[in-house]
Design a protein that fits this description.
Blueprint: H1 2-23, H2 36-43, H3 47-59, E1 63-65, E2 71-73, H4 76-79, H5 85-89, H6 97-121, H7 124-138, H8 143-161, H9 164-179, H10 191-207, H11 210-228
Antiparallel strand pairs: 1-2
Helix pairs in contact: 1-3, 2-3, 6-8, 6-10, 6-11, 7-8, 7-10, 8-9, 10-11
């Protein structure tokens, strides 16, 4: 079991290294990658770790691997899906500013529309949960706790919208968001400004006021964007 865990950790590192080189443009679309044996030698890892990493790159549609042929890089802008977003965002271990700007814009628009839908579709239990989370945000002990509550609030909001595509978009970035949570901590930097807006958003959704709900959630997103940029 320990050996399997160690191999998994190594394959994660190989995957991230190769994904970084593909997404950064070091390997252009259509270009051949070195053989798996050559990659293993270059990176100082075993073949099993390289195979596992390559399989993940295939699943993300970053590589095309044909039996008896070389591994070729695919154009992630043409073939990539939502699961590529987080890997593009965290290029070189930090935040890619261009991708961050696009992500924040998309997030604001999605959450705004989700709030509008939630005002019409939420259940009583969901409305109560949003009220509870808004209150909890105001009373959070520190920024780390507030950040977790913020994500929980937005998750409940999206679930309340009844739109499964919005739910899947949020799910696609959840794990990597929390793996790099410290890079996004600024979303809760000014809790005194944000807390009343969370309460206003929850109240509007609970009362079925779609316009007010959308405006309040858009305002939350705008404040958070200001702090992140």
């Amino acid at each position: 079991m320990a050996q399997g865990i160690r191999r998994s950790l190594v394959s994660d590192q190989v995957f991230r290294a190769l994904a970084e080189e593909i997404l950064s443009g070091r390997y252009a679309p259509g270009e051949k990658l070195p053989t798996q044996r050559a990659l293993a030698a270059e990176l100082g890892v075993n073949m099993a770790s390289v195979r596992e990493a390559v399989k993940r790159l295939e699943q993300l549609r970053l590589l095309e691997v044909r039996h008896g042929d070389a591994m070729r890089v695919r154009d992630w802008r043409e073939h990539g899906g939502l699961d590529v977003i987080a890997h593009v965002l965290f290029r070189a271990g930090g935040l890619d500013t261009g991708t961050l700007s696009s992500l924040l814009e998309a997030r604001r628009l999605m959450l705004q529309e989700a709030a509008r839908l939630a005002a019409a579709r939420r259940s009583e239990e969901q409305a109560e949960r949003l009220d509870e989370l808004a209150a909890a945000f105001a009373e959070a002990e520190d920024d780390e706790a507030a950040q977790a509550i913020d994500f929980a609030f937005m998750t409940e909001l999206v679930e309340s919208s009844g739109n499964v595509v919005f739910v899947l978009i949020l799910n696609s970035i959840r794990q990597l968001y929390f793996e790099r949570a410290e890079l996004f901590r600024a979303v809760v930097r000014d809790r005194e400004e944000l807390a009343p807006i969370y309460r206003r958003a929850a109240s509007a959704i609970g009362s079925g006021a779609a316009g007010r709900a959308a405006s309040a959630v858009a305002r939350i997103a705008e404040v958070q964007e200001r702090h992140l940029r």
